[in-house]
Amino acid sequence: MSASYNPVIRIVPNSESVDHYAAEMVISQIRTKPDSVISLPTGSTPENLYNLLVLAHKNDDLDFSKVTIFNLDEYWPISKNHPSSYAYYMRKHLVDHININSTNWYIPNGEAPDAQAESERFEAVLQQFTPDLTILGIGPGTTCHIGFNEKGSTIDSTTRYVALDPQTRSANSKFFQNPTDTPTGAITQGIADILRAKKILLIAKGEGKAWGIHRTINGEIGATAPSSYLRCHPAVTIMLDQAAAHLL
Ligand code: PGA
User: Hey, which residues does 40 pair with through a beta bridge?
Assistant: First the structure.
């Protein structure tokens, strides 16, 4: 196991404060280094963060023209135009509202016929960059997933197809009109990819994340809680609202 470090833990009063501080971190990253490479999550947690970034672009000229974005994951298989695909999510919440160059936005292709070939393609592109900042959510319940690295993920894992944990499928079924349509698998950046970032920010809100946050910070580092690998990285901030922090 690599050396372990203590992440910086910031507990803020409520979920809006999480959004606010996370947005400040991204904005300051882009202002300091306009050609920043940033890995981004999807899901309900970062939705308002993206609203704030769009506002910063529209009202304060935050310039994304030289920024590169990598998404952490995408369901597979799924159409890019499916309203619950992460490609659609990103266009709806961020990409269509900022001045990013479309060739600087990378997301695994949920329509690719072969998940392994697509994972290798995405990994090869990602390897050409070093993310300056990677933002993460954390999975529901006891999953402790980051990206879609479910239990069993190893520290040296790279982009690959993964089967989704039943808790993940159950939590994400709210995004699908018919819950049985929730995909059973996804393509995700691996743990090694995530740990290559210069800085990492994990954001978590609400009671449903409290057990996972406690396990991430206080449990053994290893594949039974993939988020615990973050303690092998020297520059991690974990930003929590009171509810997500209540077991600490
Ligand atoms: P959520 O998902 O933001 O919808 O809770 C987070 C995750 O599964 O990583």
Answer: 71
Q: Which residues of 86-124 are buried (b: 16+ CB within 10 A; e: fewer)?
A: bbbbbbebbbebbebeeeebbbbbbbbeebeebbebbbe
The pLDDT confidence band at residue 1, using thresholds 50, 70 and 90, is: low
For the stretch 165-203, pLDDT in tens is: 999 999 999 999 999 999 999 999 999 999 999 999 999
The answer to pTM > 0.85 is: yes
**Element counts in the chain: helices (H) and strands (E):** 7, 10
Q: How far does the centroid of ligand 1 lie from the alpha carbon of residue 136, in Å?
A: 9
Q: What is the pLDDT of residue 2?
A: 64
CA of 39 to the centre of ligand 1 (A): 15
- Site to substitute for ligand 1 among 138, 146, 230, most atoms within 8 A of C-beta: 138
Sign of the torsion formed by the C-alpha atoms of 202, 179, 77 and 67: negative
CA of 211 to the centre of ligand 1 (A): 14
Ligand 1 environment, Cβ below 6 A: 43-45, 137-139, 145
User: For residue 159, what are the contacts with CB-CB under 8 A and spacing of at least 6?
Assistant: 108, 119, 120, 122, 123, 126, 187, 188, 189, 190, 193
Q: How far is the CA of 148 from the centre of ligand 1 (A)?
A: 9
